Amino acid sequence: MAENGGRGPTVARIWRGRTRRDRADAYEAYNYEVGIKPLIEKAIGVQTMREDRETETEFVTISYWESVEAMAAFTGRDPTAIHHLPRDAEFLLELPETVQILRLVTSHGKTGGT
């Protein structure tokens, strides 16, 4: 049972990765197919963000979960452990070593999309 009585997410898992700017579109498509689609099926919500800079692009993925236990059930292990996609080493400038897990305290306004 979620800490908030099942009314929504109580934690967010934040992943960050950087790629060369000229590989960003290809990585975005790959990441969606291999990394984001499975999250969409299991997490309460998923947001992906992208910042294009002169020579590199940073991607941020935030997935929202009812509990840390729900994240662990999805990953099959410690949800704070990093999980690299099969082609991440090909695309990313360096492989991220950590993810950030934050407890949601409040949420205001409308977020969401299609």
From TrEMBL:
* InterPro entries attached to this UniProt entry: Dimeric_a/b-barrel (IPR011008)
Top-rank taxon of the source lineage equals: Bacteria
Question: What is the name listed in the Swiss-Prot or TrEMBL entry for this protein?
Answer: Antibiotic biosynthesis monooxygenase
